[in-house]
Design goal:
heterodimer; A: 297 residues; alpha+beta; Alpha-Beta Plaits; 8% strand; elongated; B: 287 residues; alpha/beta; Rossmann fold; six-stranded mixed β-sheet; four-stranded antiparallel β-sheet; 9 helices; 10 strands; globular; disordered N terminus
Chain lengths: 297, 287
């Protein structure tokens, strides 16, 4: 019975204050729309940056004529080097086959196999790639580098490329993270402020209720329910628009647009659930908290 | 008659079950002093200083017995409103004690204040109606606040609205009513729970003289049913005509506390209205 009363009060308030209610609804709709678009974008960007960083490898070329024993000894050495996640061995035959498949005409001219046995060293943390390279081939007195094993011919990192990749991807990730934080903060403030404004317009009403002897929660519940209704409605509309956009624009593109099918984007259902919970929680809690000031009569 | 003592919820129920005002008219209230019951309002050495340094009240001591009708007069800023706001616990005194029906207000914790307020009807100069509700719903809200059911509301609200002369305005919104009508709604709301005490802060401040008389007539009727009425006003002409007890405040101090002349206790509302008009005009039919 009490719940029915509170529900009636909330819907009455929504009807009688159509303009502020609509403003709150529109605010939630817009912020949720932006959030809903940005979460996948931020995730895709971060995912893409991580993908690129995964390609940072340290290549260890062995000397021509390295024996089977050399290969397994070097593998042990590499695995014991700190910061190494795993190593991949590509024998000279495999390398030759791969390269020839890419460039048959060129390799047909060559006749023999010029490629060495190679280890691809995958660092646990892409940022450590240069350190690993330095550990495997410390700088020698003359200015060059001396590998730590005589079977190693050369340690290659593509130094400049690695540095660039690391710097750029770090920047991209940082930007995406900052943007996401700013966006979330802006949404919370915007929604809270709109609610506050619509409550401020009704502060006299709250004051009168208190004078008649209403308890705080008796006054608060209709406002919280109102917040839930507005939050749910606004978010649902935003989700509806997002779904339309996804079906109409992104899904047809997804097959030939790798960024959007990046593996790290959260599934649409999860996105919807997160948005719905956030939208309702922010507006309900926002209503209850904003009301505190006006309840002190 | 139930004057709130210990448990506010019990007394609220008692007040609610109390017979409607029309039936109670014959029961003329007597001064409570004879029964030794505590005064309805008791101020003892009450002081109120505002943060900015202004003095709201300074050593104010008075008491009001059950069933009394008391005017609180004084110019703007003399402390009338401070007394009212202290009584509904909107403000806390800086020093001194305030008792209502024997209960020290400082002992009521914040959470219990709403329950305390349900025992006091309050009427303001600016009516303080809920703008988004009809007349009926405005009055019903006072009952809903106390947990009153639909049945109780359906029984009581039309009754009190008929009493206050608003039977034809049930479904109007406050902004569709005249000032006098709005004040009647406010009084109906204040009285629908049959509180033992009714406070009115400048109830006629926004109204023309003729409408004011109607409002005072209504308050008089409520008083005759046994409710203690305290009215803050600066309408001296009206106070003089009423010939009731007057407490005058000036700069937060009581400068006068006396019954101005004798008055007839058992005057009918019509006689009352006639006297208010100076006994010249014919009394209109009772509202």
């Amino acid at each position: 019975m009490k719940l029915g009363f509170f529900l009636r009060e909330a819907t009455r308030a929504l009807r009688r204050n159509a303009a502020p209610s609509f403003a709150a609804l529109a605010t939630i709709l817009l912020t949720m729309l932006v959030v809903g678009v940005f979460i996948p974008i931020v995730q895709a960007t971060t995912g893409a940056a991580n993908d690129v960083r995964k390609r940072v490898l340290v290549d260890v070329y062995l000397v021509r004529g390295a024996t089977q024993a050399d290969v397994s000894r070097v593998r042990e050495t590499l695995l014991q080097t700190s910061g190494v996640k795993r190593v991949e061995f590509v024998s000279k035959q495999q390398a030759y086959a791969q390269q020839r498949a890419k460039n048959p005409a060129l390799y047909a001219l060559l006749g023999s196999n010029p490629l060495p046995d190679t280890f691809h060293v995958v660092p646990a943390n892409p940022g450590d790639a240069l350190k690993i390279a330095a550990a495997l081939a410390p700088e020698a007195a003359g200015g060059g580098t001396t590998p730590i094993d005589r079977a190693i011919d050369k340690v290659a990192t593509g130094r400049n490329d690695t540095k660039k990749i690391l710097a750029v991807t770090r920047f991209v990730k940082l930007m995406a993270g900052t943007l996401a934080l700013l966006l979330i903060a802006a949404s919370v403030f915007l929604i809270a402020n709109t609610i506050r404004l619509s409550l401020y317009a009704r502060r006299r009403e709250v004051q009168v209720m208190k004078l008649v002897g209403a308890t705080d929660w008796f006054i608060r519940w209709p406002f919280v329910i109102e917040g839930i209704i507005v939050g749910a409605l606004g978010t649902l509309l935003a989700i509806l628009l997002l779904a339309v956009g996804k079906i109409a624009i992104i899904d047809p593109l997804a097959s030939d647009f790798t960024l959007i099918s990046a593996p790290n984007t959260m599934p649409f259902t999860v996105l919807i659930a997160v948005m719905l919970v956030a939208g309702i929680a922010i507006s309900a809690v926002g209503s209850a908290v904003s009301l505190r000031r006006f309840l002190r009569v | 008659m139930a004057v709130k003592t210990g448990n506010s919820r019990l007394s609220r129920r008692a007040a609610a079950e109390h017979a409607p005002i029309v039936a109670a008219r014959s029961a003329v209230p007597h001064r409570a002093a004879s029964g030794g019951a505590p005064a309805v309002i008791e101020f003892r050495g009450v002081e109120k200083r505002y943060d900015v340094g202004a003095v709201g009240l300074d050593q104010v001591t008075f008491s009001i017995e059950r069933g009394d009708w008391v005017f609180l007069v004084g110019s703007t800023g003399s402390g009338k409103s401070t007394v009212m706001r202290l009584l509904i616990k909107e403000l806390e005194p800086t020093a001194g004690t305030i008792r209502v029906a024997g209960r020290d207000l400082s002992e009521i914790e914040r959470k219990r204040v709403p329950y305390y307020r349900r025992n006091i009807g309050v009427v303001f100069q600016d009516f303080k109606l809920l703008p988004n509700r009809t007349v009926y719903d405005n009055v019903a809200y006072a009952l809903q606040v106390t947990g009153g059911g639909r049945k109780e509301i359906r029984a009581k609200v039309p009754d009190i609205l008929r009493l206050t002369g608003l039977a034809t305005k049930l479904h109007n919104y406050p902004d569709q009513l005249s000032g006098g009508e709005q004040q009647r709604v406010a009084i109906a709301r204040a009285f629908v729970n049959h509180p033992p005490l009714l406070l009115a802060d400048e109830p006629t401040g926004n109204l023309d003289p003729e409408t004011s008389i109607g409002i005072m007539q209504l308050l008089y009727r409520i008083n005759r049913a046994g409710t203690t009425v305290l009215i803050a006003t600066h309408d001296n002409a009206m106070v003089d005509k009423m010939r009731r007890r007057v407490i005058e405040l000036s700069h937060g101090r009581i400068v006068r506390d006396e019954a101005t002349g004798s008055y007839v206790r058992d005057e009918s509302t019509r006689e009352f209205a006639a006297r208010m008009r100076g006994g010249l005009a014919d009394a209109p039919p009772e509202i």
